[in-house]
Description:
Layout: H1 3-36, E1 46-50, E2 57-61, E3 67-72, E4 78-83, E5 98-102, E6 110-114, E7 120-125, E8 132-137
Antiparallel strand pairs: 1-2, 2-3, 3-4, 5-6, 6-7, 7-8
Amino acid sequence: MSASKTARARVSAISALIVATALMVEGAQDCFVDRQKTSVPSESQFEIIQSINTLHTYRLDKFAGTVWLLTRADGGDAEWRPIPAPDDQRGMDGRPAYQLFSSSLTARGTYLTNVHTGRTWVLTEAAVTDALTWKEIPTGKTPAR
């Protein structure tokens, strides 16, 4: 084989390797994203979200703002443990109003937001009872433009 054919074959092999690597990286990113949140139609009522840092799995009722935590019952079977919804009746008009976000940057960063009003709550755990509750995050005044 001549030197130019050998060089072209090497370039082709390297190009194929680069393309294959890029496709693998893109596929790995898709797998990572898919494990954090289910892909559901925007008008759906329920969604499942996985927290990477806390390794918790949540089910969200996007209409009412109710969240459940996936736990193990006494017999070892999986069950959804409800976390009481915050006092916010503005999401009850028959369309999705809530979004659950679990931060990958903070271990205690699970947030529930009313997407219409902007009200936001952080998930907290009571020190004495270990009960999970939502604590509203106050919104500061919007600066004048």
